[in-house]
Amino acid sequence: MHADWNHQKRTYDFGFAANDISKNFRADLGFLPQVGYREVDGYVGLRFYPENSIFRFVRPSFFVDEQKDLDGNTIFRRTSPGVGVNGAKNLQAGVVMHLSEQYRVGNDLLSENYLDWFLQFDPSRRFTRLGFNGFAGQRIDFANNRVGNGATLGLTTTIRPIDKLTFDINLTREWLDVTGGRLYTASVERVKSTYSFSAKSLVRIIGQYVSTDRNSALYGFPIGSHDGSFLGSVLYSYKLNWQTVLFVGYADDRVLTANNDLAKLDRSLFFKISYALQK
Hints:
Number of helices: 0
Shape: globular
Oligomer: single chain
CATH class of the largest domain: Mainly Beta
Largest sheet: 15 strands, antiparallel
Number of domains: 2
CATH superfamily of the largest domain: Porin
Structural class: mainly beta
CATH architecture of the largest domain: Beta Barrel
Number of strands: 15
């Protein structure tokens, strides 16, 4: 069962939702990541439209959510005030405080307090997108059933040096400190470049490197102190007509070995034609 009700006026909005999913429920189409729970959530927000300001829309809000298993035990609980804004140059930003947010880990109900945020705007024609996102504060170490302190910092940007060429860059760094020191530091570095030869033809190249450094002594089970992987791919696309598209691509996956070499994991070559049938 799912039910929701939402109400919006010019100066305020509010709503609620409820879910009840039995343990044995399965979907004939699609995938359910979780079953066997009951959940109720709700929100209320105020809506402001400033004049003569870089901000065109401001919405402070308050959100609550609680999820329990069918025996009445709390799985998840959230209380999060926040504020979101829209503005000039496609500005979108928001800050949310997570107060005593709780998760069930094994038989324990662990609590964390943290702040998360996002900021995105479009500076210019060549520097078309710039975004920051992340969190900072307490975070749950689910693998070892404890609470630590850490942060995630993310940077995304889109650069178009010439009209036909676009670079999308994503950089993310995350770390978590627990009693005894730094548990892990993880990084993701991803670059996607797209060159359009014409309205019908383009080539896309992606390179991504993911690495994690860990303090193995702080884990409650055996785990490596460092790992890394690289993913590279090239895709060519050609639109034969408005309903027929041809794709040809190559991908190369590699993993970091104990000798600090990127060993070949697998390679793939693929070909695809997409055609829309009409009556």
